[in-house]
Amino acid sequence: MLTPLPAPDIAENGRRTLALFELMVRKPWRGTGSARRIHEELLAGRSEDRVTLLVEPTHPKVKALYERWGYEYVGDQQPFPDAPIYSTMLRPLPKP
């Protein structure tokens, strides 16, 4: 994180956080709700407390979509020195 988060927010035990990476839907299915259904099915019944993902700040529509899905922006992150800067999003998961 470019701005450090409080220790309780970043504490991990190996089972606290699911990291979601790359959810894509081909053009013919965009705008049909398929992405959200796939996303929600992936998260259903998970044992983790929360899910996180990264969004390029140059894609505000994608960020807004994730906010509608319950994600909250928690700060910016640069995963490694020559990587772009990403907006970090976090969403709590319901207990199964």
From TrEMBL:
Record-linked Gene3D superfamilies: 3.40.630.30
Protein name: N-acetyltransferase domain-containing protein
Top-level taxonomy: Bacteria, Bacillati, Actinomycetota, Actinomycetes, Kitasatosporales
Domain N-acetyltransferase span(s) in chain numbering: 1-92
Taxonomic superkingdom: Bacteria
InterPro entries linked: Acyl_CoA_acyltransferase, GNAT_dom
